[in-house]
Design brief:
heterodimer, A: 491 residues, alpha/beta, OB fold (Dihydrolipoamide Acetyltransferase, E2P), Rossmann fold, 3 domains, seven-stranded mixed beta sheet, B: 359 residues, six-stranded parallel beta sheet, two-stranded antiparallel ribbon, 13 helices, 8 strands, disordered N terminus, EC 1.2.4.1 (chain A), oxidoreductase (chain A)
């Protein structure tokens, strides 16, 4: 039997990629370890090595093909003596056409065009992928959460009607926000691990070095405590640093400067010493990266007076709120989610799209139960709402967007309508964002509640590695649906 | 725990001149005194300025200690008495626009930058005219106007924060230098070395001043530091030069400060000055200082006092006792006025509780 060579995953959260180049042809002899192909994602380009000796029997996916799901066979490797099968088994499990053009392809003149990771292997852009005469493989399954932004409530007042919308990923929205603010204000700069030459460990700072140079896009050593302090000092001196933490897990080393130096100094100085700084990076659970790389720090930072804490879900919110954060005169904690980075949403094409900090968004209207969440939790909540609608329960979904200051008025107004509330977050249950919301709702809308406020949170354990345990440790649509039905007294 | 001089001496593997002293680092100070003939001289005017500035810190801190004893000042109160020459000499070397930042033994630094003793004392008493409106206290005062960046309560933080201020100088392309003061206890902290690395890597204009007063609260430097005789060499692994300075001689401090500032200003990157100094009082007002003997403190006061050193030089230069007593009298009056102001001033308006949280 020929051995299938599968589309490899480059990272725990990669779901699909592009087959950029084949280094071998059908019939070529290959040895284990030979580089046979290059694949790329929106974050990186990687080489695929042969895992066994043999002859390349058939190439199943032509070079240039995009959106190839992880684990799809891309070629067949024949052991010695095997013949090439006449009918290579094309994967027909999913025959949907691939989306074209790819939404993340930068235009040739785009200043953010990615630099090739391997200069000696230029992309063969000039050669169109050969027509295979068969439907190219398509996206196997949508990543968690909807691909398009939910309907924006008409009440979002800051957008003029008729504003054109463009589709972009959260990653691109964050990058655009930084780039626009850096163009606008020379005091804004970015520092962090791998933000410059590598263009971001999660490729959020793609193209910034090229446009703004090494004075304003600064690679730091792996010393979070030190460079967070350097950022705070620079902010005291009047600059507007954007400090990227590769992930918020690593910011534990820097939390002293975030809390003691950044958050408290305005107060301790009687209003004299400002600290206009944004700390941003990947927060929450990624996928299968275990306890020290999967933690939601939302409630930690939301606890601290002097900080503003933002955790967006959509690309539009990511852009509009990051721009607002960079312009803020106090320290802002900006919590991003790795799984959302690659997801696309509609973003207003506006000259200067800035959203107000501290304002929640009603992501879906409903009258039966209020679901409150933020960041990736909103995706769970929207999916749950969809499912609940099928069962006759209309859920209202509130995307908090900002966790401090908390827009409790919007939550309470919704609860006065639905009389029921379920909060959803990935973080641990004790002293969680949900705890705070439930306490405030109980105090402010006690007489309106028809059921106990309910929290869906991460399990009260360090994040496990095993796939089944990890699933158990995180919120899920099923858990939300069950909780929503429970507060509606429905089976 | 109090330790005998004998046990401390037993650890010292360095030959000592027979000076009659029983303490290694006092011996060092003595050697420096012997070398004083070669020490850099101040002009007559500078000498008098140094005397006046150091005496203001001394009298201010004495008064703060009194007010603490009377219950007018509360919380933590770390007095700078004994260390006056360090910040005074450094400030004499600074140029306009240069910034300083320090930890929590900070009253002297504030006065040295020219901050108003009334505002500092009113902050100590927790009153509304204090530099932080009474919301910061002893450890947390700032003056944007005087380029004083605090006033930080967490040991070691002035290193990266000061490095960030130096980063801003380089980013803006001005020729200002930041001076970051921290103690020999902080010199063991990880963030200090993270800062050294970045400052040297990026050639930032910063002078790190290690104020080695020999005791991190109650732990003497040799009990906390694997290598404690040459803290000024702690930057060598990062390519940062360092110098050991007699921190009890304001003239030596000023001369070293000028060398270091010129080095940092020239774009060569950071430099370290280790100031050997001594605090006469406890770590804070609540420290009974059982970890050292009365004799040790007495010896420092009597033989190595930074103010007395300058006073003697002024007398030798022809100033008379009456004139210097007059200087002291003026300063005492200024401090008394500050103390009176700080006790009479109103407490913060209750509405101030919730202001200045976010901008």
């Amino acid at each position: 039997m020929p051995t299938e060579i599968l589309m490899p995953a480059l990272s725990p959260t990669m779901e699909e990629g592009t087959l950029a180049k084949w280094h071998v042809r059908e019939g070529d002899e290959v040895h284990a370890g030979d580089v046979i192909a290059e694949i790329e994602t929106d974050k990186a380009t990687m080489e695929v090595e042969a895992i066994d000796d043999g002859t390349l029997g058939k190439i199943l996916v032509a070079e240039g093909t995009e959106h190839i799901p992880v684990n799809r066979p891309i070629a067949l490797l024949l052991m010695n003596g095997e013949g090439a099968p006449d009918n290579a088994p094309p994967d027909t499990s999913n025959a949907a056409p691939i989306p074209q053009p790819r939404d993340s392809a930068p235009a040739a003149s785009d200043p953010f065009q990615a630099k090739p990771q391997q200069d000696e292997e230029p992309q063969q852009d000039e050669e169109p992928p050969p027509d295979l005469g068969e439907t190219p493989p398509a996206v196997e399954e949508a990543p968690a959460g909807p691909q398009a932004a939910p309907d924006e409530p008409a009440a979002e007042p800051e957008l003029p009607s008729g504003t054109e919308m463009v589709t972009m990923t959260v990653r691109e929205a964050l990058r655009d926000a930084m780039a626009e603010e850096m163009r606008r204000d020379g005091d804004v700069f970015v520092m962090g691990e791998e933000v410059a030459q590598y263009e971001g460990a999660y490729k959020v700072t793609q193209g910034l070095l090229e446009e703004f140079g090494e004075r304003r896009v600064i690679d730091t050593p792996i010393t979070e405590y030190g460079f967070a302090g350097v950022g705070v000092g620079a902010a005291f001196a009047g600059l507007r640093p954007i400090v990227e933490f590769m992930t918020w897990n690593f910011a534990m080393q820097a939390i002293d400067h975030i809390v003691n130096s950044a958050a408290k100094t305005l107060y301790m100085s009687g209003g004299q010493m400002h600290c206009p700084i944004v700390f941003r990076g990947r927060n929450g659970a990624a996928a299968r990266v275990a306890a020290q790389h999967s933690q939601d720090f939302s409630s930690w930072y939301a606890h601290v007076p002097g900080l503003t804490v933002i955790a967006p879900y959509t690309a539009a919110d990511a852009k509009g709120l990051l721009k607002a954060a960079i312009r803020a005169n106090s320290p802002v904690i900006f919590l991003e989610n790795e799984i959302l980075y690659g997801q696309s949403f509609e973003v207003p094409k506006a000259e200067d799209f800035v959203l107000p900090i501290g304002k929640a968004r009603i992501a879906r209207e409903g009258a039966d139960v209020t679901l409150v969440s933020y960041s990736r939790g909103v995706a769970y909540a929207l999916d749950a709402a969809e499912q609940l609608a099928g069962e006759g329960i209309e859920a209202e979904v509130i995307d908090l967007r900002t966790l401090r200051p908390l827009d409790i008025a919007t939550v309470v107004a919704s609860v006065k309508k639905t009389n029921r509330i379920v909060t959803i977050e990935e973080g641990w249950p004790v002293c969680s964002i949900g705890s705070e919301i439930c306490a405030q709702v109980t105090a402010l809308a006690f007489d309106d509640l028809d059921a106990p406020p309910t929290r869906i949170t991460g399990a009260d354990v360090p994040m496990p590695y095993a796939a089944n345990l990890e699933t158990l440790a995180l919120p899920s649509v099923e858990k939300i649906v069950a909780a929503a039905k429970a507060v509606c007294y429905r089976e | 725990m109090a330790r005998s001089f004998e046990s401390k001496e037993a650890r010292i593997d360095q030959p000592k001149p027979d000076t009659g002293s029983r303490n290694f680092w006092l011996d060092q100070a003595r050697e420096r005194q012997h070398a004083a003939a070669n020490s850099p001289r101040l002009t007559a005017e500078e000498e008098l300025t140094a005397y006046r500035n150091m005496l203001l810190i001394r009298r201010f801190e004495e008064k703060a200690g009194q007010l603490y004893g009377m219950g007018h000042i509360a919380g933590f109160c770390h007095l700078y008495i004994g260390q006056e020459a360090v910040v005074t000499g450094m400030m004499m070397a600074l140029r306009d626009g240069d910034q300083i930042i320090t930890a929590y033994r900070d009253h002297g630094h504030m006065l040295a930058t020219g901050m108003d003793p009334k505002g500092v004392m009113a902050e100590l008493t927790g009153r509304r005219s204090g530099y932080s409106k009474g919301k910061g206290g002893s450890m947390h005062m700032f003056s944007v106007e005087k380029n004083f960046y605090g006033g930080h309560g967490i040991v070691g933080t002035p290193a990266p924060l000061g490095t960030g201020i130096a980063f801003a100088n380089k980013y803006r392309g001005n020729d200002h230098v930041c001076v970051s003061f921290f103690g020999e206890g902080a010199a063991n902290q990880g963030q200090v070395y993270e800062s050294f690395n970045m400052a040297s890597l990026w050639k930032l204009p910063i002078v790190y001043v290690i104020e080695n007063n020999h005791y991190a609260l109650g732990t003497s430097v040799e009990r906390a530091s694997a290598e404690w005789k040459e803290l000024h060499h702690r930057g060598l692994a990062f390519g940062i030069p360092g110098e050991e300075i007699d921190g009890m001689d304001v003239a030596a401090v000023k001369a070293a400060g000028e060398r270091a500032l010129a080095y940092a200003r020239s774009g060569k990157g950071p430099i370290i000055l280790e100031m050997l100094t001594y605090r006469y009082r406890g770590h804070s007002m609540s420290d009974p200082a059982k970890y050292r003997t009365r004799e040790e403190v007495k010896d420092m006061r009597e033989h190595h006092d930074p103010i007395e050193l300058v006073r003697q030089r002024l007398l030798e230069a022809g100033h008379d006792e009456d004139e210097l007593r007059g200087v002291d009298r003026d300063i005492r009056a200024r401090v008394a006025e500050a103390a009176e102001f700080a006790q009479d001033d109103a407490e913060p308006d209750p509405a101030e509780l919730t202001t200045d949280v976010v901008a």
